[in-house]
Every structure is written in C-alpha cells, then in structure tokens.
TrEMBL record:
Subcellular location field: Golgi apparatus membrane
Protein name stated in the entry: Protein SYS1 homolog
Organism whose genome encodes this protein: Camelina sativa (False flax)
Gene name per UniProt: LOC104714386
PANTHER family, sorted: PROTEIN SYS1 HOMOLOG, SYS1
Transmembrane portions of the chain: 12-39, 59-83, 90-110, 116-136
A Pfam family annotated for this UniProt entry: SYS1
Bilayer topology: Multi-pass membrane protein
Main location: Golgi
Length: 152
C-alpha cells in the first residue's frame, strides 16, 4: 500500500467499519462461548448488549468482562489487516465502541452501570493503543529489496 496522498473513499471506510464491527462481535461471541459455555444454560445477546451483565459481583459477570477485554485485544489485531495505518486506529476504535453503545441503547436502554463504562472505556483504550503500536511496528519494517540485488 502506498502511503502518499490519501484519496477520500467513503465506501472503503464504511466497509472497514462493518468488517471490524462484525469481526469484533464474532470474536466476542467466541470468547463468550468459551468463558460462559458451561456456566449459563443458554447463551443469548443479553451478554453482548445488556449493561446489567457486566458486573463485578458475580463470577459470570467477571467472565463477561473477560470476554469483552479479550475481544478488544483481538480487535487490535484485526486493525492491522483492516485499517493498516496507525493514525486511523483511534478513529476506528472509537467508532466501534460508539456503534456498540448505540446497539446497547437500542437493546436495553442507556447503560447506567459504572462497570459497563469502565469495561468499555478500558476496551477502547486497549484496542486503540495496541492497534497503534502494532501498526507502527508494521509500518517500520524494512522493505525487502531482494529482487533488485544484482548477481555477480
């Protein structure tokens, strides 16, 4: 990818947001299934979008919190391949969590739990900072020049 002047492509940005959001929710579902699979009788969208499930007073709540935090780590890795630019990681992370807030409001109302805000704020920070770090590391790799070496 050439990093010169950027061309404004709103369809690419929307596609990246949709891919990142879907990847995040698929990973969240996988981690929720791993952490809660044997603890609850039935998995549902309650664990994704209901702020009351993010609680520190039960072991199940801690499992949901772990699912969200591990999903934010995975989201940072997804951004290496979907976003590819360190300066865009904060924007895409914030967009992901704003869309998630919107879904939570539509599902169960305004989140009034302090644990929900702390977990999602921490997830946003972890995702943005780790994605920026990983993208910077990727951008700073040396460009292989093997095909230009002359054989003597």
């Amino acid at each position: 990818m050439f990093y010169g002047t950027a061309v404004w492509d709103p369809w690419l940005i929307v596609g990246q947001i949709i891919c990142l959001q879907c990847s995040y929710y698929l990973t969240l579902g996988l981690f929720t299934m791993v952490f809660l699979g044997l603890r609850v009788p039935r998995l549902s969208l309650v664990y994704f979008f209901d702020y009351a499930t993010l609680t520190t007073s039960t072991f199940t709540g801690w499992c949901v919190i772990a699912s969200f935090l591990f999903s934010s780590l995975a989201g940072a890795v997804y951004m290496i391949f979907l976003v590819e630019r360190a300066r865009k990681c904060l924007d895409f992370s914030a967009t992901l969590y704003i869309v998630h807030l919107f879904f939570c409001i539509m599902y169960g109302g305004w989140p009034s739990s302090m644990a929900w805000w702390v977990v999602n704020g921490t997830g946003l920070a972890v995702m943005a900072l780790l994605a920026e770090y990983l993208c910077i590391k990727r951008e700073q790799r040396e460009i292989p020049m093997d095909r230009f070496n002359s054989r003597v």
